[in-house]
Write a structure and sequence with these properties.
five-stranded mixed beta sheet; globular; about 525 residues; alpha/beta
């Protein structure tokens, strides 16, 4: 009988509970970090819930998994839910014995204290020795095979084989970005690529038993292992316990130093724990030096750069959606499709106007997006952006629509990227080494931020756009999403207006101070 589990605030448990049952996701967590696995098992409430962007990725994975099942006609889904362990295992065992079933979806297998649910096991008709053999297929919404996928398949195949199933092959099924959709019914056989990875998985499967033993021994301990947060917390996935594990770190913790983390690791080995302790002479990049010095800095060239802008000054931001399954002819999986833009226009008089575009229909958005943008920016004035992203989109559309090529090429020539200008000519301690507009804006313009918005970053915007256009049927909810998208995109361009104005003022004041000092 399991003993009652009591957990205290120091990542300890008492008394020691019976070994918990693991799963493939828990196994992968343990490979990333034993402390992550321990907390997932014993103190899951300490995890930070997935944000809207991460949840959208998870939902996309589920959608792709269901779509992949259509590639196996006649396949049967195990009906027992993920919490119905015994029922799911029994149902899977019964389906395995039915020779008329060509494939099983979400099959449940258990061995050595590990339960896995397999996306697809496909029956191979001509098994050796007359007994049926199977092909294990893991479905991913990614576009290539990754190391973490091989680890995922290693635990799955180990459990399935341990449960007595004869596996002939192990495969990964993922999205093929080379597929070009030409309209009509999506060709699922071309949309998906199936790669045989049996050999690579077999090599990792030899390590599974040892790895599981280490995890189980660790989980039986009275407290979480003492593992310092580091680079492993972000690879292959962001650890949901990052906030918990770093809550007591100082504000100037060495890990907050931007740039390559090899430098951070090197400094940690030297006993450095905060950025202020970095010794003089350390080989830091320009960005790292600015963070170390921790003072506001204005380049002498910033003012002349900002004065080079031509009125009317446009401030442009674009939002896109990337569909795993293409819906519009001549598009590919995960191709960035522009669906929205915002343009704040400042006249030489100081007056600011705002224009915007949002494609709200489940139809090809690019032509209307381009037409509206060409009309909005006209043929005069600089066009401020805050990344090279808009330039890439405009080049893509110029190649796609010959009738717009000339106008879009001219627009591209007028683009003026504020991001590298700030990187090279301004720094504020509140940036903490990040030049994301979400970090720069509140530091330079404290009165303006994103916290009041329902949508606060691009990944969430893309997910909400998809929901508005392709999922949601309630017109009230669709209108709510539309308003939230418009407000978010408009905030990005208003941010550029205010950033430029404040930075221009700082540069002018610096120039005046130099004149007064006679320098």
């Amino acid at each position: 009988m399991d003993r009652k589990l009591i957990v205290d605030s120091q990542d300890r448990l008492s008394p020691v509970a019976a070994a918990p049952r693991l799963s493939k996701s828990k196994f992968l967590s343990g490979l990333q970090c034993h402390k992550r696995l321990y907390l997932e098992i014993h103190q899951p409430a300490l995890a930070t819930p997935p944000d809207a962007s991460m949840q959208a990725i998870l939902d996309m994975g589920t959608e792709i998994g269901v779509l992949a099942q259509q590639c196996f006609p006649g396949g049967v889904l195990v009906k027992a839910g993920f919490r119905q362990r015994e029922a799911a295992v029994a149902e899977t065992a019964e389906l395995l014995q039915d020779p008329t079933i060509p494939a099983i979806f979400e099959g449940a297998f258990e061995y050595d204290g590990v339960l896995v649910r397999v996306d697809i096991v496909e029956r191979v008709q001509n098994g050796s020795g007359g007994s049926p053999s199977w092909r294990l297929i893991e479905v991913k919404s990614s576009t290539r095979v990754k190391d973490v996928h091989l680890d995922d398949l290693s635990i799955q195949s180990a459990v399935v084989q341990g449960a007595g199933v004869n596996l002939e092959a192990t495969c990964l099924m993922h999205i093929n970005t080379g597929y070009r959709y030409d309209g009509g019914v999506v060709d699922l056989q071309t949309l998906f690529s199936v790669e045989h990875v049996s050999e690579a998985v077999a090599a990792r499967r030899t390590l599974v038993s040892e790895r599981l033993a280490a995890m189980k021994a660790m989980l039986s301990g009275a407290q979480a292992p003492l593992i310092e947060p580091d680079q492993h917390c972000h690879s292959p996935y962001e650890c949901p316990f990052w906030a918990h594990c770093t809550k007591d770190k100082p504000p100037r913790w060495i890990y907050h130093l931007p740039g390559k983390k090899e430098m951070v690791s090197q400094l940690v080995r030297q006993g450095v724990t905060t950025i202020d302790e970095i010794p003089e002479g350390a080989r830091l990049s320009d960005a790292q030096q600015k963070v170390k010095h921790n003072v506001e800095w204005v380049s002498s060239e910033l003012g002349s750069l900002l004065r080079s802008l031509r009125y009317p000054i446009h401030h442009l931001d674009a939002e896109t959606v990337m569909l795993a399954v293409p819906r519009f002819p001549s598009t590919r999986p995960y191709q960035a499709l522009p669906v929205q833009w915002s343009n704040h226009i400042e006249l030489e008089s100081g007056e600011v106007m705002h224009q915007e575009f949002l494609h709200t229909e489940a139809s090809e958005p690019r032509r209307r997006w381009a037409e509206a943008l060409i009309e909005s920016v006209g043929d005069s004035g600089s066009i401020l952006v805050y990344s090279a992203y808009e330039a890439g989109l405009i080049r893509q559309l110029a190649d796609t629509f010959p009738e717009f090529k000339s106008a879009l090429r001219e627009i591209e020539k007028r683009l003026w990227d504020l991001l590298p200008v700030i990187k090279d000519h301004y720094y504020h301690p509140a940036f903490n080494g990040s030049y994301s507009i979400k970090s720069v804006l509140p530091a330079v313009v404290p009165s303006l931020g994103y916290s009041d918005l329902a949508i606060q970053e691009g990944g969430h915007a893309a997910a909400e756009y998809y929901r508005m256009v392709f999922v949601e049927t309630d017109w009230v909810e669709r209108e709510t999403i539309r308003e939230a998208l418009l407000r978010y995109c408009a905030r990005d361009t208003l941010a550029m207006v205010e950033l430029r104005r404040v930075l221009k003022g700082k540069a002018e004041r610096q120039g005046e101070e130099k004149v007064m000092r006679g320098t």
